[in-house]
Design goal:
Elements (H helix, E strand, L loop, with lengths): L7 E3 L24 E5 L8 E10 L2 E4 L5 E6 L6 E2 L4 E5 L2 H29 L5 H26 L2 E3 L4 E6 L6 E2 L6 E5 L3 E8 H4 L7 E6 L2 E11 L8 E10 L8 E7 L8 E3 L4 E3 L2 E8 L2 E6 L1 E2 L6 E6 L8 E2 L10 E7 L4
Parallel strand pairs: 1-23, 2-24
Antiparallel strand pairs: 1-2, 3-12, 3-16, 4-11, 5-7, 5-10, 6-9, 7-8, 9-11, 12-15, 13-14, 13-16, 14-15, 17-22, 18-19, 19-20, 21-22
Helix pairs in contact: 1-2
Length: 343
């Protein structure tokens, strides 16, 4: 089987935007910034094929409240690391605090009356019914105070576990209601790969199977913890989850790919899906040529996994740039020394 190799991946943020729906003219090279690229693989693997996945934490929480109130203060910023129990956001609680003081005053009054009835009961000057009634009043007042304290606690949004503030959904002064998303927290610790797989891709896989994956230019090992192929009624695909065994500490949300053993890769010339760029109805790739990125339109066939067969537009051995982002036709490129070997 022929494959395109080695593919290239961008290793930095790219400037500029991509035009859609038409063939873009090659810009003057001197007006474009030079972009560093690195070798990342050598086509579809032998004895298997790649399936695209996303790296994420096994602990993610969308913080919300059960109260309707105004956002009083946000104590954290996006990207900030917080410990468990850290105060992240405060809602206005003035009304609740007033109600609590009134409830505590009522509780103190009924408790005093309870003590008076107890003293009279000891002197045989009150009935058992009177004592039972005042005890019920004390219990009711205590429940009211406890309920208000619980509601006030819901105005103080704290981190349920240590992690990083992934996103902020509100601003100070906003009015929020019960269940409205406020902050998203991504936990430290274990990470997992999440991929969408078809029934063919899931053949031979089962919970507990160890698989190889690539992310951020490094190779690692993961263990399948969940597999539900064919769950979607439209795409007939399901979800695969795999716990990352090594390496640890990869960046959340990173693009990854899982090597599925036994999955047949496209025959003939092929390109990774991650290298494709779309301009309206046209699909192409950037080829590294003479120190520049050259946009090339392709005719592609159908295929499973992360590689697609190429019908026309490329020659065997040409170097394709992976994850091109905002790369532009004619942009100067640098090939770094970092290499992630293909399978």
């Amino acid at each position: 089987m022929k494959t395109l190799f080695p593919a290239l991946a961008l290793s930095g943020a790219l400037l500029g935007t991509l035009a859609c729906g038409h063939q873009e003219a090659r810009p003057v090279a001197k007006d474009l910034p030079k972009v560093a690229v690195s070798l990342v693989g050598q086509g579809a693997p032998v004895g298997g094929a790649w399936v695209a996945a996303t790296l994420q934490s096994t602990r993610t929480a969308m913080m919300s409240t059960r109260m309707a109130a105004q956002v009083k203060r946000i104590h954290v910023q996006e990207g900030q690391r917080v410990a468990a129990g850290t105060l992240m956001l405060s809602l206005g609680d003035e009304d609740l605090q007033g109600q609590l003081k009134a409830a505590q005053t009522g509780l103190a009054t009924v408790e005093a009356y309870h003590r008076r009835i107890q003293a009279l009961q000891a002197q045989k000057a009150s009935t058992a019914v009177e004592l039972e009634q005042v005890e019920a009043q004390v219990a009711q007042a205590q429940a009211g105070v406890s309920s208000l304290k619980a509601n006030i606690a819901y105005t103080q949004i704290r981190a349920p576990f240590s992690g990083v503030v992934q996103s902020r959904k509100v601003n100070e002064g906003d009015f929020v209601g019960p269940g409205m998303p406020l902050l998203e927290l991504v936990g430290d610790g274990e990470q997992e790969l999440v991929a969408t797989v078809s029934e063919d891709e899931a053949k031979g896989l089962k919970t507990g199977t160890k698989v190889t994956f690539e992310a951020e230019g490094t190779e690692g090992q993961a263990q399948i913890t969940g597999l539900a192929p064919g769950g979607d009624p439209y795409s007939h695909k399901g979800t695969l989850r795999a716990k990352v065994l090594k390496p640890k500490g990869l960046r959340q949300g990173s693009f990854a790919r899982i090597l599925v053993p036994g999955l047949t890769a496209p025959q003939g010339l092929s390109v990774p899906r991650s290298a494709l760029v779309q301009r309206g109805e046209l699909t192409g790739v950037f080829v590294a040529k003479d120190g520049h990125a050259e946009l090339r339109w392709l005719s592609l066939g159908e295929g499973e996994g992360s590689f697609l067969p190429v019908r026309s537009g490329l020659k065997d051995g040409e170097k394709v740039i992976d994850n091109p982002g905002a790369l532009q036709d004619g942009q100067p490129i640098d090939i770094s020394s970092g290499v992630s070997h293909g399978k």
